[in-house]
Design goal:
By secondary structure, the chain is of the alpha+beta class. The chain has two helices and five strands. It starts with a helix and ends in a 10-residue tail after the last strand.
Length: 124
């Protein structure tokens, strides 16, 4: 990955975290790594733990952030999320959300959240 790509991703995660805090979420951890995957953000939304995959797009990307999370990535998020829950002894409800951050050339970023992306699917 290029340095610019990494900076874009980091900026997107910072914006996503600020957005989630602004809507009342508690951020527990960022960039949690396990063998086979990494969780961008782990947060609490009420009594539910949420694994947040952040997808950041700069101007000119053909595919939106949310479209870039396919079945393979979802399976990896589920497996890594389960490892996280097990390692933290969490037995309550949890879900996986995607936060798509679009960075314009100038002006404010556009942030959109897609809740519970595994609902109705069999991705495990």
């Amino acid at each position: 990955m290029t340095a610019e790509h990494l900076l874009t991703g980091r900026r997107g995660e910072e914006l996503a975290e600020a957005h989630l805090r602004a809507v009342g979420w508690t951020i527990l951890e960022r960039n949690v790594s396990f063998r086979g995957g990494e969780l961008d953000i782990v947060a609490r939304d009420g009594n539910e733990l949420v694994v947040v995959e952040v997808r950041t797009r700069a101007p000119g990307w053909m595919q939106s952030g949310e479209e870039s999370v396919g079945p393979r990535k979802i399976r990896r998020l589920v497996r890594t999320g389960m490892k996280y829950m097990d390692s933290r002894k969490w037995d309550g409800p949890w879900r996986i959300d995607v936060v798509a951050v679009t960075l314009p050339e100038n002006g404010d970023a556009h942030i959109e959240r897609f809740e519970d992306i595994t609902a109705g699917g069999n991705f495990a």
